[in-house]
Every structure is written in C-alpha cells, then in structure tokens.
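Standup notes, protein team

Yesterday: finished cleaning the Stenotrophomonas nitritireducens set.
Today: Type IV pilus secretin PilQ family protein structure.
Blockers: none.

Input for Type IV pilus secretin PilQ family protein:
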Amino acid sequence: QAATGAVTARTVAQAAATVAARGYSGRPVTFNFQDVPVRTVLQLIAEESNLNVVASDTVQGSVTLRLVNVPWDQALDIVLRAKGLDKRRDGGVIWVAPQPELAKFEQEKEDARIALEEREGLVTEYIQINYHNAEAIFKALTEAKGIGNNGNSGSGGANGGQRENGFLSQRGMIVADERTNTLMISDIPKKIAQMRELIAVIDRPVGKVLIEGRIVIASDTFARDLGAKFGIQGRRIGDRTQAIGGSLDGNSSIINNGIVTNQGLNVNLPAKTYTESPAGAIAYTLLGANFSLDVELSAMQEEGRGEVVSNPRIVTANQREGVIKQGKEIGYVTISGGGGAGGAPTANVQFKEVLLELKVTPTITQDNRVFLNMNVKKDEVDRMLEVTDFGTVPIINRREINTAVLVDDGQTVVIGGVYEFNDRSSVAKVPFLGDVPFLGNLFKKRGRAKD
C-alpha cells in the first residue's frame, strides 16, 4: 500500500493476523473508524497510551478499521503495518515514519558513528590474563565473528588479527602473547573499555570441587559340612582263612598280622567338601581278637564376613578432568616366533596395570550443584594361571562403572553396585546304604555353602 492510499477492512485484517502472535500488554481500546486519517488514529492511540507520538510529514492517508478490546500497542502495530509504517521508541516518545525513511535515517546515523570512530585516535592497552589462557580468549574473540584468518603470528607465540566488525572497530587489533599470558588491544577508547568489561567476565577464578569416592567390596560366606568314616575288619582262621576290610591291601595285612586299626575304611566321607578341616569329630572303635569296628562322625560350620573399603579423593577445577590412580603393574611372559621357518621362540615380558582409579569431570551449575561425569575402576589379581613351559599369567578381576550424576554440594550418592549370590548343596553317599533311614547317615556326607 502507498502511504497516501486508503486502507480497507481486509487490509487491516491481514495486518492483524500478522501481529496476532506477538505478546502485548497495553490497555484495551475499541475503535470503529471509516476513512479516518492515519494521523488522527495515531493521536487517539497517543491519548490512550499516555505517550508522546511524533509522526513524520510523510505519514499520510486514511484508514478504515474496527477493533474491540484490543491492547493499544497491538492496535498501533496493526495500523503501522497496514500503512507500511514503522516506529522507534525513545523513552516516552514514539516516532512514526515510513519504513524506508526510518531505515535511511538509521543508516545515516550508523555511517556518522563509523566516520567519527575513524577520525578518533587509537590507544593501546595491555590486559594481563590471570585465571585463563590468553590464546584461548584470543581465539574465542576472533573466531566468534569469523575473523582471525587474516591474522599474523609474531615471535614469542603472539597472534594478531584485524577486525572489521564485532567486538572491535574496523581499525582495532588484538594480539595474544603466550609467554606472558597477555592480550594487547589497539582500538578507540570506547571499544577498549568494552573489551576490558568483556574480558573481566571471562577471566575470573573457577570453582574447585572435592570429590571423594568409597568403593566397598563386602562378602558374607557360610559353609556347613557333615561327614562320616566307617570301617569293619574281621578274620576267621581255619581250613580256609577269611578276612574282611576296607581294601585288598588291608585284607592282606589282616591275614598276616591280625586285627589292627587303620587298615582301610569301608566308608571314607569326612567333612571336607566346602571347609578345610572338621571343627568337631567323634570316633568310636570296637576292637576284638578277630573283629574291629571303627566309626567317626565329623562336622564343620564356617561363617565369614569381609569388607574392603577403598577411599580415593581428588580436588579438581570446574570443567577440568581429574584423575587419581593407585596400583601396580603385573608382569607376565609372552612368546613370539618359533613358527614353521625354524626360528626360535622369543620370550617377551609385558606388564598389565592393576589399578584403583577415579576419573571425574565436574561442572558447577548456577544453583551451586555439581554435575559429575565420572569413571571408577577397581582391579585386583584373582590368581596366577600356570602355563606349561611359559610361566604364569595373571587373571584379573575388574570392577568398573561409568556414569553421570547431578548432586548437591556435600551430598553423598550411591552410583551403582553389583550383587552376586551363590548357593551350593552337595551329597556324597554309598549307593543303597546311604538311603537307609537313620543308619544311612553313616554312609553319606552333606555339604552346603552360601556366598
């Protein structure tokens, strides 16, 4: 629409749809106009909003509209968009003009500002970086606006870049010296002050975090064994000598030497399935001239509880990875060579790390909580495996967790664990005899273990 043309109800409806998604908070107004001059509508809106409205001389034309309970700022936007106008607000004054006129004014204002800066003398400031890295700040300030490719490097690890826009003026330049961790900035005083303020926000001490971990390996064991030893020996001398015992060697001894103890057992099932040796036993021996009866009952119950606590702790800066390790390296031999070509095999010693390790990267949030990205590892040597002709190699038990968690300051949190349960039962018995009620206990042994 031209600035001098009439605005129909349809045009106003289209403008209203365009600005409907915006948020408005002005006092509701109601307008119902037919071919009313735009300048008159602007004057009415100024009275409703208690603001001063200045209209350019080029604001002309009339408008037809009907608005009911519409915020005054929304009504103003509808009228301006329908007439191809725009506004600028400065305090309590609103300036209304055609969009090209406002754009031209702002461009001339920006050109004047740039011309003034170009005539202003340059100053040079040296800013010492205390808590950050000057190279990193230089890179962030230059690459953020797509500049730095036309920079140059000097001796001593200095890097420079000529800016055309962004943080510095067209003539501004920034140089980073790695050795002294200093930034050199050359620009007009206004830009220098802005850069100082920006760097002060970046170059500040980072928070430190103390992380303490507890790795608990707990074990609870229970074992019970019941067993029996049973032996009968006998000898009969006559036309045919007869002997009974627990073994052929024992029978030969009975025939030659008579009845003595420890000549072999018919049933030898002591309580040693899950325990090392019986804690209690009772034995009975009946010995005659040509007869011997040996009975031994043994029992063992074993309970154990163990706990291994590892307590690594580390202090690290905000968003910096901290690592602490403790452990040893286990050596073992590997063999190479000795193939079909007739080469002799070569022994090589290699080492495997067995470590307690805590690796964590903390991030302090705005509400003083800590986000932890952590890896905890606890290795231990289970046993050494014997390899014929090549020595031993270690078998290593590994426990590791890799997780991320958000915690409060001073809070303790359980991040994970593994529960293992092993329940074993066993019965060893003499066939048939072990199934006899009551007396069958003399011909069997029982064991049970829980870990």
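Follow-up from PR in the comments: Confidence is low (pLDDT under 50) at residues 1-6, 146-165.
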